[in-house]
Amino acid sequence: MEWGKTILSSLEWGKTISNREEKERVADIISSMVKEGEIIGVGSGSTAYLALLKIARRMKNEQLHIRAIPTSQEIRMACVRLGIPVTSLWEHKPDWTFDGADEIDTEHNMIKGRGGAMFKEKLLINSSPRTYIIADPSKIVTQLGSRFPVPIEIFPEALTYVEEVLRAYNPKEIKLRMAKGKDGPVITENGNLILDTWFDHIPNNLEESIKSITGVIESGLFIHYDVHIIS
User: Fold this and answer.
1) Among this protein's residues, is 153 annotated catalytic?
2) At what angle do helices 73-82 and 46-62 cross, to 10 degrees?
3) What does the record list as coiled-coil region(s) (predicted)?
């Protein structure tokens, strides 16, 4: 038995999609790569959402059968609305993954996590034999961290300790990410907090150094990952 008309059945992307024409173009490329029977990891963000729309259209028109492993509840709900079956890393290893990025430098290092899903995104990328990062030209930077802070997901009770240790890395600014649709801070899907941390310079070992701090779950730094950029 199925539900009647629900919120999920009419769910749309909640924000205005910037640079939509460019994002549609790279979403078309991702959609064209999908093959029958594949398990595909689906990252977060507006470009990933646009790619899902196009994949769903191909599934309907060509009778394709795939399953998706989403990185966030937002993308999981989009899959449900579009009729794309979902699975998990408990059940399947992805054939490949696609995801977006907030910044990408010339060496393909990235900052991700504006949507707060960097832990699952990193887990999925590490679980995949191939990962494609879809990004419009506005995401390409010469210096990582020039436009966005590094998001750091932390266990709530570790807030003051992690902040103290981070100060040793001379950040320009550390801010607790505050929610816009509710009072108080953003709470990730894992029940944690996010510190948005600005750095003048991001050395290659910063991701590893941040991850070593007790109380840090994950950061939005992706340094020297084997990814293919589609832009």
Assistant:
1) no
2) 20
3) none
